Give the backbone structure.
Amino acid sequence: MDLNLSDEQRLLRESADRFVAESYDADHRRKMANDPLGFSPSVWKQFAELGWLALPLPEEFDGLGGGAVEIGILMEAFGRGLVSEPYVATAVLGAALIARCGTIEQRQASLPKVADGSLKLAFAHSERAARFDLAKVTTSANKTAQGWRLAGSKVAVLDGHAADQIIVSAHIHDHRGPSGRIGLFLVQATTPGLVISDYPRLGGGRACNIELFDVHLPEDVLLGDGSDALPAIEWAVDRAMAALGAEAVGIMQTLLDTTLEYTKIRKQFGRPLSANQVIRHRLADMAMQVDEARSMALRAALKVDAAPIERARAASGAKAKIGRCARFVGEQSIQLHGGMGVTEELEVGAYFKRLVAFDTLFGGSAHHYGRHAQLSRRAVSA
């Protein structure tokens, strides 16, 4: 297997690294942290002009047909800059679900708008009692003469406050009662009865909780033909975990580079910290953890289109391993910076916070070690 990047992928990495280095500095990140929107609309417009929003979309809907590896290259660069724009919510989760589940008319109406930056999406699926079980959905969608009536609540919706449309998962109830199927509903953010409560995420960006109070919707908001959307949801979340894993690798690499540079200039007893053999060993351990995490993120990206069990094992394996690696690298970086590591003067603390947020998003390491083991038993029995 050739794991070297193609010429196009190298150009993407170079342009993304250059853009992030020029556009995201400490002052910009502090400004975005205090902004109610949590990101810059002008930067989002630049994403569209650079083709990054079109990157993962099918070519027939104004996309570039990029795959998970290309998304990973972009997300690693985003991790280096602690980018807070809603790229995962819109391009990785929302657009992917519409492309996979939507009708031709629904895809044609939405995906070109995602590509040009005029439509932002969010995916509302997680519920408080589900505990990261994707199949556990209590939000209901009752069939009515005019269309659908949705009721329920969602938590930890990435960038839902900024979305123009929100894809809501709900248990379909027809005239015979509960159908056992999960449906996806494309809901306008301004729909009456939809209440959004947003809050800042740890390490930058925003998320929200959503309450649906007897929300009435027309019939055509249901994505696709009404068949069970759970396989598509699992596919999209595994794809998002691969992307977030690449972002975590970018954050970890930045922490490693920053810590290495700090130990070279910080002197103790007349010698740089890096001259101490114990410090060198700790830096070597950090570098090893970063390389392991990068390998797991790449494996998850390469498996996004594999058979469901194989894909899910790769995604859960990456999420679990990268979560452990991220916590180790973050903690070592904080400790090697000493008291400075937890002050606002340095950005080490902000990067560490984003890694902590990564570890809990879509389930922590313990959850995904368990999911990986369960999937492995299913693979053996099959």
Remarks:
- Strands lie at 121-124, 140-143, 147-158, 165-174, 177-188, 194-200, 206-218, 267-268, 271-272.
- Residues 235 and 304 are 7 Å apart (CA to CA).
